[in-house]
């Protein structure tokens, strides 16, 4: 874990292993809910550390309008972050809540012993189990349930991270956060509302409906973005519960100064993207040189923009235009001419559809939104701060619906102000027909707390596409 190993540290390491639990000071384990991390351990000696972990089965949000029966360690997905020290003697108490329906156990990859503790922690509802282990190896380790069927218990949310600090500790940083990727397999399609049961068939076929950070779509976006100040050093403890998919972990607009691949002792420098396998972890460190909203993704990129594997780091501070200028100039590159041999992109034309009720239009519009709009404006309509404006409770949108339709039809560039914040991006004309635009407008205007009177029909869209028809 340290970048430089010395003979003296190895001697200390060897001596520490001769300690026994007898006479060790006793303390409660340092544990936090995601995305927070317990503070570094300051003691320079081993201790007997008591861990109390409760398994709770409960319904929580997976995405907007989508609920899921999660099986959790400590009531969160991922489970509580546990921080101990190399050489510690750990007493682990696993409690299975009496309202739970199933037995559970825990396999900690930090444990040297049968099943990583699973053999000693199989626990029925309303019961507790106790086992102990010695933290022999420093590193960042995944823990998960290993009760049969193991894949199902993991897929339902039973995983987390345990950090075993090396004897001399980790290098000092300003901020540490806990980011954990996993996927979910639901009977309904992505975005289908209501309480969604687990699909064993999809899980076996590795057809994930959701790939997310910290247990749900949007868990690290908007108001939940990880806060950092410009100039601070950041360490992310990254885990991957799978159960099936490897993560290509990347922060858009940052380069990792240091990466500990597979969370081992060796470090790599100046890394753009690092692989985190299922059941594995990594530590990444970087310095925030400029302000902005930096997007965390699994760079298997459709997972990020279409399945939920997207988070944010919000960096505040003074601009440094030498490091990054932002847009300096926006000028015309070529004049586009509509000629028979090179036609411009024209809107799709289809046979007129039957008139839809408002509910039918909203449902159809949701499908169009997920395919066309969600990558920029996000599944919850919150947009991406400083980049793409929100549609949820947007004063710009709601004060002039026809202006919004005009923008969808013809596009827009230049600055706008939404909910008191400035945006200056280009929205291109959308290649949608009149029915699709009316449907997606009805979905947007009736979602995320938006309340707009009436129903947008295709004829209203047509008036903006063909001004002479107004």
List the helices and strands and how they pair.
Blueprint: H1 7-16, E1 26-28, E2 30-32, E3 48-63, E4 66-73, E5 81-85, E6 89-96, E7 107-108, E8 128-134, E9 139-144, H2 150-155, E10 159-165, E11 175-184, E12 194-196, H3 200-205, E13 210-213, E14 226-229, E15 233-242, E16 247-251, E17 256-260, E18 268-271, E19 273-276, E20 280-287, E21 292-298, H4 302-307, E22 310-316, H5 358-372, H6 374-377, H7 395-398, H8 401-410, E23 412-413, E24 416-418, E25 421-423, E26 426-427, H9 434-445, H10 458-465
Parallel strand pairs: 1-3, 3-6, 4-12, 5-10, 11-15, 14-22
Antiparallel strand pairs: 2-5, 3-4, 6-8, 7-9, 9-10, 11-13, 15-20, 16-19, 16-21, 17-18, 17-20, 21-22, 23-26, 24-25
What does this protein structure show overall?
This protein has 470 residues and is of the alpha+beta class. Strands 1, 3, 4, 6, 8 and 12 form a six-stranded mixed beta sheet that branches. The longest helix has 15 residues. The chain is globular, with a radius of gyration of 26 Å.
Structure characteristics:
470 residues; alpha+beta; Immunoglobulin-like; Cytochrome Bc1 Complex, Chain D, domain 2; 3 domains; 6-stranded mixed beta sheet; 10 helices; 17% helix; 31% strand; globular
The CATH class designation of the largest domain is Mainly Beta
Number of strands: 26
Biggest sheet overview = 6 strands, mixed
Question: Helix segment count?
Answer: 10
Distance between the termini: 68 Å
Shape: globular
CATH third-level topology of the largest domain? Immunoglobulin-like
> What is the CA-based Rg, rounded?
26 Å
Average pLDDT, rounded to a whole number, is: 89
Low-confidence stretches: 2-19
Which range best describes the helical content: under 10%, 10-25%, 25-40%, 40-55%, 55-70% or over 70%?
Answer: 10-25%
The chain-level structural class is alpha+beta
**CATH-level-4 superfamily name of the largest domain:** Cupredoxins -  blue copper proteins
């Amino acid at each position: 874990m340290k970048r430089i190993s010395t003979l003296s540290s190895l001697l200390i390491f060897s001596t520490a292993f001769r300690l026994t639990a007898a006479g060790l000071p006793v303390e409660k384990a340092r544990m936090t809910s995601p995305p927070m991390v317990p503070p570094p351990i300051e003691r320079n000696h081993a201790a007997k550390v008591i861990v109390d972990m409760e398994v709770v089965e409960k319904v929580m949000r997976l995405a907007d309008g989508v609920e899921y029966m999660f099986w959790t360690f400590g009531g969160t997905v991922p489970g509580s972050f546990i921080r101990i020290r190399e050489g510690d003697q750990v007493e682990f108490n696993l409690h299975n809540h009496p309202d739970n329906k199933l037995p559970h156990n825990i396999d900690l990859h930090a444990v040297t012993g049968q099943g990583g503790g699973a053999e000693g922690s199989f626990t029925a509802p309303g019961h507790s189990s106790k086992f102990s282990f010695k933290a022999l190896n420093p590193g960042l380790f995944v823990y998960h349930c290993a009760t049969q069927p193991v894949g199902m218990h993991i897929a339902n949310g039973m995983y987390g991270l345990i950090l075993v600090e090396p004897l001399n500790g980790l290098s000092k940083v300003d901020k540490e956060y806990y980011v954990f990727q996993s996927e979910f397999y639901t009977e309904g399609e992505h975005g289908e509302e209501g309480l969604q049961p687990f699909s064993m068939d999809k899980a076996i076929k590795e057809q994930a409906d959701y790939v997310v950070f910290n247990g749900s779509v949007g868990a690290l976006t908007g108001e939940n973005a990880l806060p950092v100040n410009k100039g601070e050093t950041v360490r992310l403890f990254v885990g991957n519960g799978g159960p099936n998919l490897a993560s290509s972990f990347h922060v858009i607009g940052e380069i990792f100064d240091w990466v500990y691949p597979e969370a081992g002792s060796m470090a790599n420098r100046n890394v753009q993207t690092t692989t985190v396998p299922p059941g594995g972890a990594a530590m990444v460190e970087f310095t925030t040189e400029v302000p902005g909203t930096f997007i965390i993704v699994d760079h298997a990129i459709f997972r990020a923009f279409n399945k939920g594997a997207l988070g944010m780091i919000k960096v505040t501070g003074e601009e440094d235009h030498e490091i990054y200028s932002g847009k300096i100039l926006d000028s015309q590159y070529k004049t586009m001419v509509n000629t028979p041999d090179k036609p411009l992109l024209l809107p799709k034309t289809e046979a007129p559809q039957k008139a839809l009720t408002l509910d039918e239009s909203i449902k159809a519009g949701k499908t169009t939104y997920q395919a066309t709009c969600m990558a920029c404006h996000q599944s919850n309509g919150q947009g991406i701060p400083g980049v793409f404006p929100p549609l949820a409770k947007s004063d710009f949108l709601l004060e002039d619906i026809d202006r919004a339709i005009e923008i969808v039809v013809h596009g827009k560039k230049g600055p706008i102000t939404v909910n008191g914040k400035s945006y200056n991006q280009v929205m291109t004309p959308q290649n949608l027909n009149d029915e699709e635009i009316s449907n997606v407008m009805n979905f947007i205007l009736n979602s995320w707390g938006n309340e707009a009177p009436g129903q947008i029909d295709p004829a209203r869209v047509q008036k903006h596409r063909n001004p002479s028809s107004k």
